[in-house]
Design goal:
259 residues, alpha+beta, OB fold (Dihydrolipoamide Acetyltransferase, E2P), 2 domains, 6-stranded mixed sheet, 5-stranded antiparallel sheet, 20% helix
């Protein structure tokens, strides 16, 4: 049986019984939070031609439109077709050192207010917004970092919120093309680059439903960094507005722990 083509978020590339596999989250719109972002494990190798090239190239965070074949051994799903629609990328870093000041300040403000979640919008040196910064408490007995990495707690509601609010959303150029959007910061250190911040509503936007209905415009590719400091009781989710911008490059270069 082959399913109709649907949109999926690539959550992770893993090994399943020693074989490569891709974990997808179903982006089909639903009003039932219990059915939102249903995970699907799909065979990650053994393809041929253009399909093999596409599957080999997908990264966590990409959005793909794919049809799945469920007729293989043990009813393990396989890609029948796959096309990358968005090149947004997820990066995860655990036990990071030297966490930038804006993240620590946001956490301290949330903690002092007795909130489990806090958020800010970061700006470049020209005052243009360049990222949405969220912090989440990581209480004893839970592993919020792993919840985000595994997809049990989807990042999509945070990315969707950026897509809905970003006034600069436009057609996406694939990675390696011209850098979209100007005004990325140019100062020497990450803390200085994130120095100019405005506080926004700190409410938890994780509703469990998806706003991924298609529109005529495709937002640009984002880069989403999930960081847990080595000495912290919180997790940072930083949705950088331009994957190919200087800010995303700076964060990648700063934290060697990213995967």
């Amino acid at each position: 049986m082959t399913s109709d083509a649907s949109r999926y978020r690539v959550q992770a590339r893993v090994l399943r019984d020693g074989d490569p596999a891709v974990v997808l989250l179903d982006l089909t719109p639903t009003d039932d939070p219990a059915e939102a972002y249903e995970p699907v494990v799909v065979r990650g190798g053994g393809y041929e031609g253009a399909l093999a090239e596409t599957v080999d190239g997908v990264e966590p965070g990409n959005v793909v439109r794919a049809s799945l074949d469920w007729t293989g051994p043990d009813a393990v799903a396989a890609f029948e077709t796959a096309t990358v629609e968005r090149h947004t990328r997820y990066r995860f870093g655990d036990d990071v050192t030297g966490l930038f000041e804006a993240a620590r300040e946001t956490w301290e403000a949330a903690r002092d207010a007795g909130d489990a979640v806090g958020s800010r919008v970061t700006h470049d040196t020209d005052g243009q917004p360049n990222g949405a910064l969220y912090v989440f408490a990581d209480p004893a007995g839970r592993d919020v970092f792993d919840e985000f990495r595994s997809g049990r707690r989807p990042l999509d509601p945070l990315v969707e919120r950026v897509d809905e609010d970003d006034p600069a959303a436009d057609d996406e150029a694939p990675p390696g093309g011209e850098e979209s959007g100007g005004g990325d910061p140019t100062l020497g250190g990450l803390a200085a680059r994130l120095e100019q911040v405005d506080e926004t509503d700190g409410g938890d936007t994780e509703t469990g439903t998806t706003a991924a209905a298609e529109t005529g415009d495709t937002p640009p590719a984002r880069e989403v960094f999930v960081l847990r400091p080595v000495d912290g009781a919180f997790v940072v989710v930083y949705v950088v507005f331009r994957r190919d911008g200087l800010l995303a490059e700076t964060v990648r270069d700063t934290y060697e722990e990213l995967a």
